[in-house]
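Weekly sync notes, structure subgroup
Attendees: PM, AL, DS (notes)

Item 1: joint prediction request from the bench team. They want all two components modeled as one assembly rather than separately. Inputs as received:
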Amino acid sequence: MRGPKHLHPSDNERNDARRNDARSDDARLLVGLADGSDAVLAELYKRYFPMVLHLILNNSGSEDDAKDIYQEALIVLYEKVSEGSLELHCQLKTYLYSVSRRLWLKQLSKRSRNGSGLIDQENLADVDDDLTDHHARDRQFSLMADSLDRLGEPCRTLLEDFYIRHLSMQDITDKFGYTNTDNAKTQKYKCLMRLKRLFFSVYKEER
Amino acid sequence: MDEQKFTDWIDKWLRDELTETERLEFETLRRSDPILDQRARDQQQLARAMRLYGQRTDFRKRLNRIHAELDMEAVRQEAQEASAPAEEPARKGRVRQLWQTYRPILAVAASVAVFTTFGTLMLMRQYQSSHKQQEQYSMLRRDLQAIRRSQNAILQDLNARERALQMNPGQVAGSSFLLSPDGYLVTNTHIVQDADSVYIQSTKGDIYKAKVVYTNKAYDLAILQVRDDSSFRARTALPYGFEAGPSDLGERVFTLGFPRDEVVYGEGYLSSQTGYRGDSTAYQVAISVNPGNSGGPLLDEKGNVIGIISGKQTSTEGATFAIKTDVLFRTISGIPTDSLKGSPIRMSRKNGLAKLPRKEQIKKIQESVFMVKVFKQEK
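Output from the run, pasted for the record:
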């Protein structure tokens, strides 16, 4: 991971100042993203979408493709940030561009076996590790989505309330109209055991 | 502790809601029982996957909301002028122009080169493989037909059980060892598959009838139980413990097994973290084993069980494979409770062998290692 900044220590001061500005701005956006601020997310979204749209449109993609690719790149960024494992060695712009580019390349090679290169600039960051992580999480995500679908109601809502929305057992008892929390707990236990079987029956085989 | 209550505890632990004393008790429980520990880790992973699921679904909704509010005309306009991130001004020099012009030709040349290279490699591979012995994973069970004669030699023995065996000599033999003091054993599936009946024989020569409680063909593990045999005395505790964590390369290891009618000791070291063809559920061990060693315990210096001997590679010298203990725990936690008839397998991490010299260790361990004899219908 080399930022050009380190390669050219003799760059003139004006450029340095501009970069520092960009960096502190990146930091502000990342903090906002981690805090879950809608305003910051909207700002980030609007700022770099045209860049990705340009890339995709120039490489035989549609506007919808651009939307999907850009959103996936943002998901990569968001999940790294909320995990606290993002190591940014370049500008945020470069990072998002590199991730989008890789995702689009993969998409293209999936559509046709014609592995031609992309017409774009060559200023890229090394995002291999981040994408490998993303791929693993992706698999876990679709497996969980599939398991939850197969689980059915009311189990699905019950488990989502407890594990995702972090409701207390008392809230759940009231919401689902169980007579007491013990009943709710038993129900949650049964649901969890079913989900565990669904999820791990595929997950462990794949490992 | 019943399963539901433990599940509740794990949930509280994941939400950080346990009181200090509860937390200590919870941790002690996990340390002392590898199966509960495995269950806690599974549940933690499940909860994490659910959280990721929720987080991502929610984030996607937010993204879509923002996207819906975009002024697409303005964005398109901007995209026209947009450039890639330029931390340095982009140069479009002569080399680049040449590249763009000759790219199709280069692409054809490159694909011809790639094709030739791989074609040659494939032909080479084919040639080699037809001339080389196929490497094989051989399962270390022992065919007893060959030694029927030696069994006939002890016909004078008037023990009724022994005589029954004489009339119908076992066809396959392997090793196994106790999982819990009350008569649960583990061995390999490939030893007990298609069995009509299974007997285990201790190092002293006592024979007990065993029942296959559970088999997992994917991991090649089978759980046996000595059932309805009053002559089997449950022990108070096992000499060895079970180590769930991964062991390091170079760890000195040893095993006991039954390649002959007598128990045989073997010694070696851990040579790889993965088994046959990169199988991550097994270790590779440099230890000499023979047919009949399958199902025997693999122990580390301190006398902790770290694996179960399962097979070896015939084409390579000294490549033996042993299934890792965490796979064993996973298998055990996957046994439906009704196949255990209400008596759960109690495994322990306590180990009373750590400070003993090897000879003493072996003396203690060999009482918990059994030969497995399998009888099946002639086909």
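Discussion: Chain A has a mean pLDDT of 79.
Action: AL to compare against the crosslinking data before next sync.
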